[in-house]
Amino acid sequence: MRRIQIGDYVEDVIERSDYPMDKVREILGRERIGVIGYGPQGHGQSLNCRDNGIDVVVGQRRGGNGWKKAVEDGWVPGVNLIEDITEVVERSTLVMYLLSDAGQGAQWPNIKPHFKPGDAICFSHGFALTYNDQTGVVPPPDIDVILVAPKGSGTTVRRLFLEGRGINSSYAVEQDYTGRARERCLALGIAIGSGFLFETDFKKEVYSDLTGERGVLMGAIYGLWLAQYEVLRARGHSPQEAFNETVEEATQSLYPLIAENGMDWMYANCSTTAQRGALDWFKRFRDANVPIFEELYDKVARGEETRRVLAANRAADYREALTRELKEVEESEMWQIGKVVRELRPERQSED
């Protein structure tokens, strides 16, 4: 365990060396892991557990894309791929509840009666418990309730695992009935492919996650890209030039360097013109956006964002409306030229 101190704030980080795979298998060897849902997180986490020698069964509705994908990935119907999720709960001692946030609330009345005393349930998101007034998800008092939340998509969880790397994850223990909840949580965190784990709680995890998704991870970054792209186009720049100066250089050159070395290194290792401009302007963007982030965080904390998410997911025309919104993004000029630029990358040419 590594102790990190930033100013007055001290926190402990769990590394793989704290839970080597033989220790993980010893702890989880007492368990059968039941993964409910085979979306991106269910796919990545279940396969990583299986590859690490953990006993896993997957629960997924028959006939959908998730079922088809699970079969393609080697899960065997009736053996370790089960269409009745209540059976998965009955056959398991540790359930990883990885349905969508809306799906978790919808299915909870069906699976709750099937938990046995001493079982555990693991979430990868604090949504269902934190907003249980909206989801109805209240675990029985005689089971362990834990969280392992990878800081990335399930696709990334799987890709980094296959590359011999790992994604960082947060963890939390909400309810420790057995006295083993923490060791179950940390062992599972390593088994699903985490490189290291840091402690949080369910509320902090979901507040930060929902703020991040709507903010710099997806919502705000696309908004900034679109604003710059539209200004460049309005000032006479071509679609390709506007896209390259807005998205392509960021994602293909600068962001990987920032991920590897930090923004401080990036500022110290760019041209003096870029350096001066970035140092002069970043505070302007910060000051302009702080009020938006304050409003966003408050709406997350009040449950307004989750109410809108659940209402949208429950609407009869949800899929049709979502398809229209996504098609609008796909067909926008910015992402039409983006598709062309990606096809022009040298590595794409070598694939042809």
What does this structure look like?
The chain is α/β, with parallel strands linked by helices and 352 residues long. It has helices at 21-28, 40-51, 65-72, 85-91, 101-111, 127-130, 132-135, 154-162, 181-191, 202-214, 219-234, 239-261, 263-268, 272-302, 304-314, 318-330, 333-344, 346-351, and strands spanning 2-6, 9-15, 33-36, 56-59, 81-82, 94-97, 120-123, 144-150, 167-175, 194-199. The chain has a 10-stranded mixed sheet with strand order 1-2-10-9-8-7-6-3-4-5, with helices on both faces. The longest helix has 31 residues, at 272-302.
In short:
By secondary structure, the protein is α/β, with parallel strands linked by helices. The protein folds into two domains: 2-200, Rossmann fold (3-Layer(aba) Sandwich), CATH 3.40.50; 212-351, N-(1-d-carboxylethyl)-l-norvaline Dehydrogenase, domain 2, CATH 1.10.1040.10. 58% of the residues lie in helices and 15% in strands.
- Say what the CATH topology of the largest domain is: Rossmann fold
Distance between the termini: 47 Å
β-strand percent reads: 5-15%
Q: Could you give a short account of the major beta sheet? A: 10 strands, mixed
Helix content range: 55-70%
Number of strands: 10
Q: Average pLDDT, to the nearest integer?
A: 95
Unreliably modeled segments? none
What is the name of the CATH architecture of the largest domain? 3-Layer(aba) Sandwich
Oligomer: single chain
Number of domains: 2
Using the CA coordinates, give the radius of gyration. 22 Å
Corresponding CATH superfamily of the largest domain: NAD(P)-binding Rossmann-like Domain
